[in-house]
Amino acid sequence: MISANDLSPAELAALLHFHADAGVEWLLEEEAVDRFAEFEAMKARRPAPQAQPQPGAAGERPASSESRTPPRPTTAARPVPAAIAASGPQPAIPDGEAVQQARFVAETARSLAELKTAIEAFNGCNLKHSARSTIFASGDAESGIMVIGSAPGAEDDREGVPFSGKSGQLFDKMLAAIGLTRSSVLLTQVIPWRPPGNRPPSAAEMDICRPFIERQIALAEPKAILLLGNFAARFFFGENDTIHGLRGRWREIAAADCVIPAIASLHPQDLLTAPVNKRLAWNDLLAFQAKLKSLSLLRN
Q1: Looking at CB atoms within 10 Å, which of 35, 107, 154, 235 has the fewest?
Q2: What would the pLDDT profile of 229-288 be if each residue is shown by its tens digit?
Q3: SUPFAM superfamilies, alphabetically (predicted)?
């Protein structure tokens, strides 16, 4: 357990802002509060749902044959949205051939700048045609520090940069709490395009995007990686556990000829949804900070 005396004034201020953003109004209570018991009591006070009447019950008129007849389909074609029509024919779901094409495109890029240009010109993934932006790595590629989020959200897609909007503001405070900034690390996402409606990427979409993120890691050659979110942790660790089971432990990621230590934590959006988990994220951030100091990537 870290003491406040071990934190610098800047780190302490960032930590206090980090908790205040989650809605924390006090740091210590005189008596422990059992939130689980409160939740169970709240559920017990809820009225039981009323049973729905069954068809044919007394007092209920049976449906006529006319009402049971499904409506006749219309023959008028639905209009095609202008944005889709302007983009031309849409590709099929990525298949094995598209995966091979993605690998070739990634392997032929000799720098992050070349890889960014290649991904922006790549049309083999259907996700690209429903997204506004291609999200690529930003920040300091020479820092040796890499932070990888999951798939872009609506704000990321709108702004064109990873970790945007409210979750991005919280993310900035998380970095500041351990002495980092956006400009001092390399930020990216597992998937470069936002899936429609923020749905999870399909297996085929993950296969086609894998060469792009693996090539980003190989070209940047980070010394330590922080993974944020359930999807990112599962993608790299190859496990189906939740982020609560995958977080907080150092593992290794293989990229090209390198083996890189990586630790997973909760995504800032997860913390906005459930602020109580901030204590878990803070422990992960401290572990990440300690690793960076041991690798001489962060000054004491």
Answers
A1: 35
A2: 999 999 999 999 999 999 999 999 987 778 999 999 999 999 999 999 999 999 999 999
A3: Uracil-DNA glycosylase-like (SSF52141)
Cα pseudo-dihedral 14, 20, 24, 29, rounded to 10: 50
Q: Which two tokens stand for residue 73?
A: 């389909």
Domains and CATH numbers, the chain: 91-300 (3.40.470.10)
Q: How far apart are alpha carbons 212 and 106 in whole angstroms?
A: 6
What is the spatial distance between Cα 173 and Cα 178, in angstroms, rounded to a whole number? 9
d(CA 94, CA 116): 20
CA distance 191 to 8: 36
How far from 119 is each of 5, 89, 116, 211, 294, CA to CA, in Å? 47, 19, 5, 10, 35
pLDDT score recorded for residue 68: 47
* Site of tokens 């780190």: 11
d(CA 200, CA 195) in angstroms, rounded, equals 7
Sheet holding 186-189, edge to edge: 138-139, 186-189, 145-149, 224-228, 258-265, 251-255
Look at residue 286 and give its three-state secondary structure.
helix
Tens of pLDDT, residue by residue over 281-292, are 999 999 999 999
pLDDT given for residue 89 in this prediction: 42
Residues 6+ apart with CB under 8 A from 133: 152, 156, 157, 158, 159, 160, 193, 194
**Tokens of residue 6, six digits:** 């071990």
pTM score, whole prediction: 0.70
pLDDT score recorded for residue 291: 97
